[in-house]
Amino acid sequence: IYCGSFFVLYEILFLTSIGLSHTRQEALILAMINYLWPSLTLLFAYLYRQLSFQLPAFLGIAISVVGLGIVINPQLFHLSLFLDTISKNPVAYLLAFMAAILWSLYCVLTRKLAQGHNGVPLFFCFTAIALWILFFMTHQQWQMPSVKLWLVIIVMGTLIGIAYKNWNQSLQFGQIQLLLLATYFTPVLSSIFASGLLRTVPEWTFWIGTCLVSFGAIVCWKFSRSIET
Asked: N or C terminus: which one in the chain shows less Cβ crowding within 10 Å?
């Protein structure tokens, strides 16, 4: 119940935040906010006593936050510009940040509560139902996808389903530090694919911030140790 609730809420909040983006550039920024979750997962694993931290690990979390700040506001220390960026679409930014927290909690609690069971297929069913309810409640206009788009939906849906199922298995039976290490360059790879799909080239400061998010997560991994039996 706990893990399923976090899973469904994460999907709804993240997808809604992307849907609320005003521009393609903003969609990339919102996606980057979501990729705070590797560092947050390590932090929550520390709080749940699944990991022990050395002092530099907290520095890694700070580096990730700074990187995200650069992504949102290239002039990091110009607070008024940062607030101006957020104020243009505060709901979308809030939802993206809440989604990152929820996914981090899901990763930690799945490892603790799942007891060898994989609930991802059931979670996807509830997510689909929740999204259709949201669709009808917000009176969205129905658009019939083209044949090309249907193929994209089928291929991407299959790949995402497999990825989520494997991730859930790995959370339960793998070593969380090594597992998260494999995801630390995901923000960079995701940004490259997204910029190609959205046909937009982010500014150089975006890439600096993206790399800092990954680097901060690596620092967290380097200075953390599992304390699980």
From this structure: C
